[in-house]
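DM from R.C. (forwarded with permission)

"hey, sorry to bug you on a friday — could you get me a structure for this? deadline for the figure draft is monday and I only need the backbone to look sensible"
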Amino acid sequence: MAVLLGGRLVGAPAATLGSGTNAASVGRWYGPAFSEFGLTLQPGSATEGIGPLLATREVDGEHLVRFSPFFVSVKEPALEKVEVNVLYPAIAYRRYGTEWKMHFFQFFEFAGGNTVDDETKKRTTVFPFYFRQKSTVPTNDYIAVLPFYGHLKNRLFRSEVKFILAPLYVQSTKRDWVTDNYLMPFFHRRHGPHVDGWQFWPLVGAEHRRVSWVTNSLDELEVVPGHDKRFLLWPFGFSDHLEVGGANPTTNFFMFPWYLKTRSVEQDHDWIAFFSHRTNRVAKFEEWSYPWPFFGRARGPGKTADRYWPVWGHAEGGAQTSDFALWPLYTHKRLHADPLDRERHRFLYFAYDDLRQSDTSTGRSFRRRSLWPFFLWRHEPDGRERLQVLAPLEPLVSGNVNVERLYSPLWSVWRSESNPATHRTSQSLLWNLWQREQNQDGSRAALFFGALQTEANARGRRWSFFGLGRGKDHPPMQTARTTVRTDSPFAHRGPEWRAIRRPDETVAVADAPAN
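My reply, with the result:
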């Protein structure tokens, strides 16, 4: 490994010029073979090896190890948290404290752990054929083997499910409503507090819920609206009376797709063969479509809109604004509701995407731009920025950290990061074949597995080629006191320097012996 001895670089062609106090960062740079460096956007360190394949990272107590595109592991010992993905999203393991979960292709799942009531559960699922749970509370045990026999609790979006020779008989419970299915989904009967219903699907069905009263958390009586729902030849005919006894009783009559009639306290809506008229008495506007979705118009204090789809359209209502031109070539949406101001421009949905989200109370903003599949750029509210060249998946699954961890390194041929809080920037080309870092103390660069290296700082500039280097320091200071601005990118901060503050700026002062 190359080191600095007496101001001269000696040793192997590894980029270790930054081993002194003036370094842009401390670490070994061997290009795509192996690189060790500090993180730019976060306080921490990372190593990368064999191009984009291997990497480790440590930041804020989080330890990451990855072997792209096969494996990534993230551990946070302080939080007792472990996350492992293998061939994401095929195989995953999660543990948080005593709770854990493992799944294979979402069909095989194993989970367990302790609840807040000190109950220990272990769950096994082979979806959709086998479900089992063992608990220290025997009443919470269940087992189900589809289609023969089963009993489930808090699964499949129901509080309880029982079946025998499914689909011959299936009983489900949700919110105290019990539905008995015979030859599911064709026949069912629903019963429970204040509700009765039946269906012979898809021919005919009906459900009635009576108006009732409950006592709320303030010990006051509160009305629970009822409803009457009917269908005939589903999904073509519906007749509903909703919010019966409530603040906005609504009547719907629908014969898909030709006729719709809605009447309520808040709005009226009529639809005949794609020609429609709506009056909204709450938002105070009228809207016409002739026919939908090609031509439309809305006028009123609550909404103004004109639509000539797919050529052009514009709509404003409340805090929202939307536009399109040659849809889906260009779309624009904006939501302005202080302190949130969110605006998005898109071309061909994800081909080009520009999202800006601001906090009007602080003036800070987040911005993300992407041109699929060429680049992704992000600007954080604190000023941090990151540019990635080649991004075939990230614009499609924005915010998916597992894609960013496991797959993004494979095609990130160029990375550029900057952090104004630490005055630090970094760039990497072709998985560190060329890499550069710069901070307020100086800059450092390496090319071709560290064979060619340069470093610049307050003492001067040095370079090396295959371990043979030369450079020149600045001559020693001739004055007894010298002042240098601390915001200089080449400001030296050796142990002999001290900082003082003047009314207009902060300066660094060195006491050097006079000749």
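R.C.: lifesaver. The CA atoms of residues 2 and 271 lie 78 Å apart.
me: no worries. The longest strand covers residues 237-244.
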